[in-house]
Amino acid sequence: MEEVKIVHTNFIKKLVNTDFYELRIKAGNEIRIIIFSIDHSNFSECTKAVCLNGFQKKSTKDYKKAIKQAEKLLKDYL
């Protein structure tokens, strides 16, 4: 494991119209998504990340449900 300041968008991407990011993990033919939030508006300057929700990506429709759940979890966390 190593620390990298620039992260490729194949692994981490900001979700549109939200404050959340997604971490993509590809294992064989499956893609797992972990939704998380950070403590800074710029990803490269954040010091903390909170993993909120994870799911297996089957279609883009999965995101709406996962984002709603992540919003609830973040609200409960704060």
Descriptive report:
- With 78 residues, the chain is an alpha+beta fold.
- Helix content is 21%, strand content 35%.
- It has one helix spanning 62-77; strands at residues 12-14, 21-27, 30-38, 49-56.
- A four-stranded antiparallel sheet has the order 1-2-3-4, with helices on one face.
- The longest helix is centred in the last third of the chain and has 16 residues, at 62-77.
Strand tally: 4
Radius of gyration: 13 Å
Order of helices and strands: EEEEH
Query: How much β-strand is present in the residues?
Result: 25-35%
Number of helices: 1
Largest sheet: 4 strands, antiparallel
- What distance separates the N and C termini? 30 Å
Q: Please tell me what the overall shape is.
A: globular
The largest beta-sheet arranges its strands as 1-2-3-4
Helix content: 10-25%
Q: Decide which structural class fits the backbone.
A: alpha+beta
Low-confidence stretches: none
Mean pLDDT: 81
Salient structural properties:
globular, 78 residues, four-stranded antiparallel sheet, alpha+beta, 4 strands
Q: What's the short story on this structure?
A:
The chain has 78 residues and is of the alpha+beta class.
Q: Topology, please?
A:
Elements: E1 12-14, E2 21-27, E3 30-38, E4 49-56, H1 62-77
Antiparallel strand pairs: 1-2, 2-3, 3-4
